[in-house]
Design a protein that fits this description.
The protein is α+β, with helices and mostly antiparallel strands. It has helices spanning 12-24, 70-77, 97-109, and strands spanning 28-30, 36-38, 53-57, 81-86, 89-93, 114-116.
Length: 117
């Protein structure tokens, strides 16, 4: 409890701050390895700009690895927009989030290591 030697009773504002601090104290803490962990009480909503976005992790040297594998990816997943190959993964966008969800299983069957929606 916050208090001052000049007051016999803690100030009401100090009591409120102290009470709030105790409620949220467990939301942020440091680990033994020096990283800070923030606990969320709920999962934030997916930003609208990520609707339809799919990340496909591929095996190095596998059938979907490299920019040349776009045709194989298209035959497995169907129509998508804006294909981007990055080291070890593809990022593609579908017109709707529902279409992206349907493509997730197809990507796994095509040889992807993991697919993130």
């Amino acid at each position: 409890m916050l208090s001052s030697p000049h007051h016999s009773e803690p100030h009401p504002h100090a009591q409120m701050v102290s009470s709030h601090a105790r409620r949220v104290m467990g939301d942020v803490y440091a680990s033994l390895f020096g990283t800070i962990v923030i606990r969320h009480r709920s999962v934030p909503a997916r930003p609208a700009e990520l609707d339809g976005e799919v990340v496909i992790l591929v095996e190095k040297g596998g059938g979907l690895d490299g920019a040349g594998a776009e045709a194989e990816l298209r035959s497995a997943l169907g129509a998508f927009e804006n294909p981007r190959f990055e080291e070890g993964r593809w990022r593609v966008r579908f017109p709707t989030h529902a279409a992206a969800a349907e493509a997730v299983e197809a990507a796994t069957a095509a040889g992807a290591i993991a697919v993130f929606l």
